[in-house]
Design brief:
The chain folds into three domains: 100 residues, Orthogonal Bundle (Fumarase C, Chain B, domain 1), CATH 1.10.275; 249 residues, Up-down Bundle (Fumarase C, Chain A, domain 2); 92 residues, Fumarase/aspartase (C-terminal domain) (Ribonucleotide Reductase Protein R1, domain 1). It is mainly alpha-helical. Strands 1-2 form a two-stranded antiparallel ribbon. Strands 3-4 form a two-stranded parallel ribbon. It has a two-stranded antiparallel ribbon with strand order 5-6. Strand 3, helix 8 and strand 4 form a beta-alpha-beta unit. Helix content is 61%, strand content 5%. Bound molecules: arginine. The site of arginine has 10 residues, from helix 6. Pathway: Amino-acid biosynthesis; L-arginine biosynthesis; L-arginine from L-ornithine and carbamoyl phosphate: step 3/3. GO terms for molecular function: argininosuccinate lyase activity. It comes from Bacillus weihaiensis.
């Protein structure tokens, strides 16, 4: 089949070469963006007198018909036309005749594809920001229900000090808040128009870049045509921001997976977000959390891939850049899917308050309380640490916890111990008293939730 760029060629490529070079099987995802970009471009061509008003109107009509068909899934594309841009041009010419060939005046696929991707990411980054906010809101609701639910806090995955479950959830709220800010901050770079950079050097036609930028609701335009067509930083930024978000989700997934194990039993996932085993009838597996943890890998992969694609590229456009799209689409799909699933999974998650609290009673996560107690009474903290460490060891050897240790033993260890020691080591009290800013004390957590609520609005 004769190519739209076939004039310079004596042979048409073989089908398998066509297939290798084509991007239509994935860049058809950009069909609406491509048509939207073309609509702005043709209006500008008419306005600037580069083509006649009648021609511009005819092309506009044709593009609108194609847009309608695209929305109804009625367009069919062909590998012979390589990518979405040439496919659309071909369909347009089929629709309105040879005048359709005037659409490509004063532009190139190079600025066209870059424009499409800016439009595409602009839309999806906004969706992702909304989804992040949705997950933050879900975490806030859960946190509000569980201010006074206590569980062991861990360091090194060893029980460290008791904390409020709400405090734990709110840690993720703030991670997501940074993610949201990063995406918001990137919007100003996504929202720039490369259109009119043409192939690489601008064009001799008297185009109006500001007009198309404005029509497409961009906030500004690329200052340099070479940069305009070859910049993919905005996609790398998107992949990088997504990698961070996925990493945060993955950490929470890891905790969810641990928490719903037999060993912890801190939570139970709703049936919707779990699956059974084909052989072991008792199983309820946290598949969705595992899958999101796993999908983090492909998002990192997409980031590495694009960074590597770009590192050796001379200016301006190179066909290597066609490799930028699949990772971007895949990341958008992964991010939107993971965030949606996460919202549902968190909303429906059942918290086993008793198990969590029980865990704080059957460990030594109240040992810091004892050391603090002695140091408040004047003993240097280092000595207090030693005294309590010895008491913990004594308990471990007799198979009891600090709460079970007879008062004489405390007295023997230090004369500073009084009868109130048992209240001090009560984990609930231990949490309540951690009133320092950003700490887990119940009242501090309540204030933190209020602050977060204002922040979210
Ligand atoms: N399909 C191409 C891509 O995705 C569009 C730009 C092609 N430009 C070119 N001069 N071959 O990058």
């Amino acid at each position: 089949m004769k190519k739209l760029w076939g004039g310079r060629f004596q042979k048409t490529p073989e089908q398998w070469v066509d297939e290798f070079g084509a991007s239509i099987h994935f860049d058809q995802e950009l069909v609406e963006e491509d048509l939207t970009g073309s609509l702005a471009h043709v209006e500008m061509l008419g306005k600037c007198g580069i083509i006649s008003q009648e021609e511009a109107e005819l092309i506009t009509k044709g593009l609108k018909t194609l847009l309608q068909k695209a929305q109804n899934n009625e367009l069919s594309f062909s590998v012979a036309y390589e990518d979405i841009h040439l496919n659309i041009e071909k369909l347009l010419i089929d629709e309105i005749g040879p005048v359709g060939g005037k659409l490509h005046t004063g532009r190139s696929r190079n600025d066209q594809v870059a424009t499409d991707m800016h439009l595409y990411l602009r839309k999806h980054v906004q969706t992702i920001i909304e989804l992040i906010k949705g997950l933050q809101a879900t975490l806030l609701t859960k946190a509000e229900e569980h201010v006074e639910t206590i569980l062991p806090g861990y360091t090194h995955l060893q029980r460290a000090q008791p904390i409020s479950f709400a405090h734990h959830l709110m840690a993720y709220y703030w991670m997501l808040d940074r993610d949201k800010q990063r995406f918001q901050e990137s919007q100003k770079r996504i929202n720039l128009s490369p259109l009119g950079s043409a192939a690489l050097a601008g064009t001799t036609f008297p185009i109006d870049r500001a007009f198309t930028a404005d029509k497409l609701q961009f906030e500004g335009m690329y200052e340099n045509s070479l940069d305009g067509v070859s910049d993919r930083d905005f996609i790398i930024e998107f992949l990088s921001n997504s990698s961070l978000t996925m990493m945060h989700l993955s950490r929470l997934c890891e905790e969810i997976i641990l928490w719903c194990s037999q060993e912890f039993q801190f939570i139970e996932l709703d049936d919707t977000y779990a699956t059974g085993s084909s052989i072991m009838p008792q199983k309820k597996n946290p598949d969705m959390a595992e899958l999101i943890r796993g999908k983090t890998g492909r998002v990192y992969g997409n980031l590495m891939s694009l960074l590597t694609i770009l590192k050796g590229l001379p200016l301006a456009y190179n066909k290597d850049l066609q490799e930028d799209k699949e990772g971007m689409f895949d990341t958008v799909k992964t991010m939107e899917g993971s965030l949606q699933i996460f919202i549902g999974m968190m909303e429906t998650l059942k918290v086993n308050k008793e198990k969590m609290e029980q865990a704080t009673k059957e460990d030594f996560s109240n040992a810091t309380e004892l050391a603090d107690y002695l140091s408040t009474k004047g003993m240097p903290f280092r000595d207090a640490h030693e005294v309590v460490g010895t008491l913990v060891y004594q308990c471990i050897t007799s198979g009891i916890y600090l709460k079970d240790l007879p008062f004489e033993e405390y007295k023997k260890a230090s004369h500073l111990f009084e009868e109130d020691v048992y209240e001090v080591i009560n984990p609930y009290e231990a949490v309540r008293k951690r009133m320092s800013a950003g700490g887990t004390g119940f009242d501090v957590v309540r204030q933190a939730i209020e602050k977060a609520k204002e922040n979210l609005n």
